[in-house]
Specification:
Elements lengths: L2 H29 L3 E2 L20 E8 L9 H18 L9 E3 L5 E3 L17 E6 L10 H16 L3 E9 L11 H7 L18
Parallel strand pairs: 1-4, 2-5, 2-6, 3-5
Antiparallel strand pairs: 3-4
Bound molecules: 2-acetamido-2-deoxy-beta-D-glucopyranose (4 copies).
One 2-acetamido-2-deoxy-beta-D-glucopyranose (NAG) binds next to loops.
């Protein structure tokens, strides 16, 4: 092999390595954004964790929190996560914060129950959906573009890691429960998102 051939060969090896690492970077950026972990928001331990037994899940369900109101700094959002965990665990008696993930106004994603664990956010759908909450009240205003982008990236991440089905159906909470969640203005917007499905599956809740 002449010197030139060696150089060409080396170049193609380098090109392949570059391509591979670029692929890896693109994959990480496009799919698995930074998620603020439970430890980072000082979550209390879950009382119980039930794995979702049939993966990937066919549904993604979007919520707004209504209360707490929007948080627009990392500290405020971590506090919002703690207050929701307190409300869900201590006042409602659930195992943990109900949602799988939440998104704050700055576009940061917070780990709730996380991937592949049954949430408590949409009765009858908890074992076949990923529940994502948008922290705030979106009856009369939209979440920030950063929040919407973050949620879309999170969903891509879920598809790439095999937690969410590639042909998933995107729903607003009100499509499966008699509720105004995720807010009129936001709901209207998500009906234009890829994968939104017009399913209507609200069952009457018996009066107690
Ligand atoms: C839940 O899934 C995790 C991760 O796959 C596994 O380590 C754990 O044993 C599972 N728990 C149960 C109760 O099946
Ligand atoms: C955060 O929200 C408060 C109250 O709505 C507002 O006054 C403030 O400007 C916001 N800060 C940022 C960085 O958006
Ligand atoms: C989810 O739970 C319901 C009961 O609430 C059950 O009928 C259904 O088969 C479960 N689905 C999966 C995928 O485990
Ligand atoms: C949904 O929100 C996006 C981002 O703010 C905006 O570009 C789009 O026009 C909105 N669509 C509707 C139908 O409100």
């Amino acid at each position: 092999m002449g010197q030139r051939a060696v150089v060409v060969e080396l170049c193609s090896v380098i090109a392949i390595i570059l391509l591979m690492s670029e692929g890896a970077i693109v994959r990480r950026d496009a799919s698995c954004l930074n998620i603020v972990t439970r430890a980072e928001w000082s979550a209390k331990p879950a009382k119980q964790r039930d794995n979702i037994t049939s993966l990937p899940v066919p549904f993604v369900i979007l919520h707004h929190t209504y209360i707490p109101k929007d948080c627009n700094s990392s500290e405020e959002c971590k506090e919002a996560m703690r207050s929701m965990q307190h409300m869900h665990q201590d006042l409602r008696g659930w195992f943990d914060i109900g949602y799988n993930f939440c998104v704050g106004e700055t576009g940061e994603v917070y780990e709730g129950r996380g991937w592949d664990i049954q949430g408590a956010h949409a009765p009858r759908y908890n074992n076949r959906s990923t529940g994502i909450c948008f922290i705030g009240d979106f009856m009369n205003s939209l979440p920030t573009p950063e929040m919407m982008e973050a949620a879309k990236d999170l969903i891509k991440c879920g598809v790439n890691r095999g937690s969410i089905a590639e042909d998933y159906k995107l729903l607003g909470h009100r499509q499966v429960r008699n509720t105004l969640c995720p807010g009129d203005t936001f709901y209207e917007n998500i009906t234009t998102w890829p994968h939104w499905d017009p399913l209507q599956d609200v069952v009457p809740v018996p009066k107690q």
